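Chapter summary example.
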Amino acid sequence: MILSPRNVIGGAAAVCTVVVLGTWPVAGTEAQEQDDTVNPWTRQSQEDVDRKNVGCVSCHEPDTPTMHVSTAVRIACVDCHGGNGQARRPAGADPGTRGFEDAKRAAHVQPRLDIWKTSANPINPGAATLKESREFIRFVNPGDLRAVGMTCGTAGCHAPEADNVWTSMMTHSAMLWGAALYNNGAWPSKTTQFGEFYTPDGQPAMVQPDPPPSPRLQSQRGILAFLQPLLPWETSQPGNVLRIFERGGRLPIEIGIPDPFEEPGLPANRLSDRGFGTLNRTDPVFIGLQKTRLMDPTLNMFGTNDQPGDYRSSGCTACHVVYANDRSPVTSAQYASAGNRGMSQTTDPMIPKNESGHPISHTLTRSIPTSQCIVCHMHPGTNVVTTYTGFTWWDDETDGDKFYPEEPLNLSAGERSRVQRRNPQGSVVRGLWSDVDFLAETGSEQFNRQLSNTQIADYHGHGWLYKAVFKRDRKGNLLDAAGDLVPNADGNVLWESLRNPTDEERETGRPGLPVHLKDIHLERGMQCVDCHFSNDAHGDGNLYGETRAAIEIACEDCHGTAEARATLLTTGPAAPTGGTDLTQGATPFGLPRFQIRAGRITQRSMMDEDLQWLVPQVADSITPGSLNYNERARLAKTIRRDGSTWGTADAPDDLAHGNDKMTCYACHSSWMTSCFGCHLSQRANEKRPNLHNEGATTKNWTEYNFQVIRDDVYMLGIDSSTTGNRIAPVRSSSAVVVSSQDQNRQWVYSQQQTVSSEGYAGQAFNTHVPHTVRTTETKGCTDCHVSAEGDNNAVMAQLLLQGTNFVNFMGRFIWVATGDHGVEAISVTEQSEPQAVIGSDLHRLAYPDEYAEHLDRERELEEADHHGSTNALDVQMRGEYLYIADGSGGFRVFDVAQIYQKGFSEKIVTAPVSPIGQNTNIKTRFATAVASPTTLAVDPARVRLPENQEQPIHPMYAYIYITDREEGLVLSTAATLLDGNPENNFLERATTFNPDGILDGAVNLEIAGHYAYILCDRGLVIVNIDDPLNPQVAAEVTGIRDPRAVAIQFRYAFVTDADGMKVVDITTPERPRLVESATTSIADAQGLYVARTYAYVAAGSEGLVIVDVERPERPRVDQTFNAGGAINDSRDVKVAMTNASVFAYIADGVNGLQVVQLISANDTPGAFGFSPRPAPQLIATHHTGGPALAISKGLDRDRAVDETGHQVAVFGRRGGRPFNAEEMRRLYVRDGEVWTVSDEPQGRATDPQ
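The structure predicted for these 1249 residues follows.
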């Protein structure tokens, strides 16, 4: 069956062949036969049309005679909709009368299903519409992709566009599915193989071009050879074999029927008694993609039409018929007055004006507002357009007093199900925004003016809330256009900043108003359709697996480059040979979209006939005397590779920032969203329909809970192969942790990491286009190179994806080493969403009853689990195992997979079986510290496919590193705990390293890149572990007395010793330098943790000493905190983020675990900055059974690569990756020495010849 005969691949004609899955009969080829004839509609007279419409107009009074604005189009209602145009309304018959209803029934095509309650689009129909007859789908929406072959796609109308849309990414959505499956280990190929297609009769289809694209096109342009429907989740096999998925076990028990042979407190804990792919021993990723609303629905189906931001039709009319989704004139332009509830303003008396789910008018248009695009493009898998509008996801916390009820909602199971059908987020059932009427008003002026810290958008796709992003300095202070501080900005000030500035205000800069960081193109009046033209919107007929591979437009096409002015020929990845001539395009008003006059380019708006603008040229910005000349722009665009010569662009190959090396938006983006953590929580007792394919209803459903959303992060890496492997912005997205509750409501695993198919951690990153271009608020030199002021060490660590320890994830349990008492796991958060830290501001807002109980307990945490050991001195939890430096007990690994399970009486065990079946102990003389080379789950042993274009995983990540005060450095194997085979869980000592006793007295270590930084009697010894089984001493740093702890951030090591805290320059690890002037005196400095620009020092009786290390060579004590003496024996500290607040977890030898809220989203000034000043407050305590000595570090969520360029986290684009070591050092090392920059030009420019 052939549906797209106009597809062209690589210059050769190709067709897309559809393979229908299943045994259903294939629909006839009436559409294709009609496509091959001359369209008779183009030949009919107006009299013919009037004759066909005689019955229709007896009831309806349409906005436009044919739904087309052009009067040259002569089409009758039935030509598009079908039905019987001759059935007339009897004279005098009013709606509801028998005569009227009989005529209506005779005129209208009748549905098979009962989901069509009114003339509005059905509410959240999901895949149900696929079971409706094609004839009825055509009747209610001629633009639906199942009907388009009989309507829009006929010859003489829009056949090429209809063919292309059918294979476009907006239809098949392959990128998200492919990335989710590969990034989380569920499918081995990084080239996506799954997409969504349906035949005209609604059956799932597989599509493959014939002939297939060449290997070159597949590799370099990202064109796919085929796409198939998602496999039924019941047939999948787990890609991440957590303990619950391991082979073995007995048949799972039925709900409520006990097993008399099961030992009390020791469940027979398996999902199946057979192999992978049986019963529930399947892959949770496939379940989530089938059943959880992530970016659904695609163009194949109607919008959900149930809340603001979700109103639309399907197919062609999903875009070309505008619905009321947003009241902001910035994003809705002339449609803003229609509101955000999907109500009609049609002249047709038959359409209710007070019912949601109708288009604004019965009119097709090319003037499509951004608010219509956001209906679909509001999720990372769809390249979030919300950033273009200056908004990002709300964090469940900011201004939370306006979003949570004073009394808990306590929704019933049925109410929860209905709410989460609209919004899959777990926290929604606790919030007022679960009510659509409340949700709809959160973007109103009245609501926003009462907020204190943010503003909320008026669109709410998926039922979500989106908060505004404002210009801030690194401390989080709001700034106006001139860069001046805006103190005490309230909701009134923030609301005023959302509107676009007038021409006069652009000149004055609106002093005193913070800058709302919407994209400058939007601020100047450009909607999405003013940049993304026909091929970008409809596709070009090829199958693509990445959105940017399918994009024709590039920045240079309109703005030119430093070397040349724009030609208005497209040059993007999907541009045809020679490019598309943009001067040939026209606006909906019949005017040329672009014009070139006297060398100046003018563009006209697609929305407003009277709006046009000059298109700035890059060449003008670097040309002295030009109206748009900017000296800093000239510096950035003309600086040479030598780092000092600048002024002209006449040697493109010698430019440091040439277009062949960097994307424009690597510098010109002002901010980007990073989603650090996404908790996918599955429940077996949730029965929900599949959202795709046959739409079957089965058990198991997964919540979707984003955790930490930040706009203060900027990171760079290497872009994908399809876009030339240039430098581009990198965001964290879909950094998944997973949980699952079985049918007995036991959490069989919780908050577990995933591993990608080739072994990188599933904490995913990807290169992308932020769509946040600004003129002033762009990136400067010191955002990407070492500052001459020495104040951007943390910024550089973040930029290079080495991580900053600020957004780390601690999870529900804090793991504490308590000496000869063993280890304790202390519950510090709620289990349900939002997983608020107990005693925190978010806890008070979202869990008022539980918070009150916590206060009644005098802030004592009550839930904890314990397991004894010899002398636990240090701990590190990773995955389902806890690594312990156990003093004379050596190195031990406890199995903690059941820590969340209520059915297990002993949740922490040395092994779930006898030592004969599992032994994870390494006997050393006196283990003092343990370090995993990364907190991320990395598996170097996984199978690798060359076509995935991945870098190798360094072998150092196959080991655990232990310091022993007598043996020095000990390496243990670890990979067998990740391979899913329970029969080989035995660890071995891989090597021992202590040449000539150099590491005697080793007490602590940190792994940074392929170097181990070890504290011992000699001071700091740096060991090269590039060959992990053959370590070598790289260097030694003396001048450190009685060392205690070490932490690494980019170019510096921070060490606590008897004198306090010291700083070591490790730019070149073989040549470390103790910074003599950088000692911070602290009487009893012990544990140490560096998060962005602050070092947190556990200082014994002083409590917590917070040191400002923004300038590492000039540290200063910022403050000391001991909670009024409650923290008086501080031994260790770790820092992590939950939602929008930051917490310190302190091991207090006398008082146990102390939980301190460092930053509150609502109360701490500058909370949304890169590094706001902490405002510590003790919120919870747990008195441990023994002295609290050490705390396990949380999961690094902003670390994709180590300090020596070895990748550890997966990237979601084929060929995309972090910088390698050489590429990193180019940014800050010249001739072996650090070179620095300033944001202002240094020296005189080279004048043009």
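To summarize the output: The chain is about 15% helix and 20% strand.
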